[in-house]
């Protein structure tokens, strides 16, 4: 398994909709493995269960069944479904990045501070954090007048660019991408693609879910399609 970074075995997750008195199966017996440095894309209609896989890896959801084995620098091979909260927090800070469509942040924290804090979490110095934050915010063409503003006032596309900057500036070992281009214009999509290509060249393993098939073209090593909680190559 030395070439494998992440291996998902028989992952199943369901949700109870109490007001409708029904059970919804989000994913069922998902099996997937990623080699180190590989980029796998998952497509499928909304509600097919794609995000559930990413949230299971990042441990914002607990699966009812299955295993998610990750080759961690800190802990060696670890089942993310059984890892302690302390271990998960460490992995999120130092090894596993997550880009969602939505920016969830601490209040009264500026865009610049958010990106700087991401660098500081990995052990970078204040000088390094300042330099890297400015570089990546410039890369995404975020107006400098917004750097010291609070992102809750930003547009959807501006928030997403900050979200991507926070994840990518850390150069994680494993990066999870949940519709990273959902509210971006073509110029911003190109900026995201450039950084994804750089991370891939540097050895980052990536798993992303997309509706934008054109964006995926020539970027992903493999593509899987998900329908009603079941995944197929």
UniProtKB/TrEMBL annotation:
Name used for this protein in its record: Alpha-D-ribose 1-methylphosphonate 5-triphosphate synthase subunit PhnL
Source organism of the structure: Anaerorhabdus furcosa
Origin: domain of life: Bacteria
UniProt keywords, alphabetically: ATP-binding, Nucleotide-binding
GO molecular function terms attached to this record: ATP binding; ATP hydrolysis activity; transmembrane transporter activity
CC annotations in GO: plasma membrane
Every ABC transporter domain range: 6-233
InterPro entries in the cross-refs: AAA+_ATPase, ABC_transporter-like_ATP-bd, ABC_transpr_LolD-like, P-loop_NTPase
Pfam families: ABC_tran
PANTHER family assigned to the protein according to its UniProt record, in alphabetical order: IMPORT ATP-BINDING PROTEIN, OLIGOPEPTIDE TRANSPORT ATP-BINDING PROTEIN AMIE
